[in-house]
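Board notes (copied after class):
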Amino acid sequence: MRSPLGRALLAVLTACMLVLGTAGCNEDKTSDAVEQSKDPVKFAKTKFVLHSGLAAGASYRWIVKPYREGKFQSGADGRTFALVKAGLAGAFTYHEVKKALDAAQGDPTLSKALVPITAVADKLRDLGGKLSGGNATDADVNDVGSVIDGLKSVGTQNGLTIEDKEPSLSQLNSG
């Protein structure tokens, strides 16, 4: 049986996740935006590496790893908290992937390799809600891996090293 404090914490974290998850959903950007030229972005490659690294770190630490360990399965110890963290991480990952793609679009070299990544990245839009609701599938988790691997590949092809950077939970909450 859950304590009142546990229920309150769950409600607050779920509300934060919903706010973060819907903040990026009202954008009018589509995958076609990648094909359009964009004004140069200052430090585009640096921003691309930073946001890709944060997306990679958050997705691995709070989504992929717990999923593989079975922490999202019904009856798993700490399942509720793991799902809430994964929901926040899913919204954060989507946000950081979009930031990385926006930065890359401002660089002529990086922008050429983004079309396949953008198509998969759009699938991440509802990931936070699926994870926190316990409705994520193997395909959803694989989509996260595909996007992150794609970002790392684009970086490597352009001489950039993208390392996983684990954001703190407070960064996940601030989006």
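Comment from the instructor: Residues 17 and 88 are 5 Å apart (CA to CA). The radius of gyration is 16 Å.
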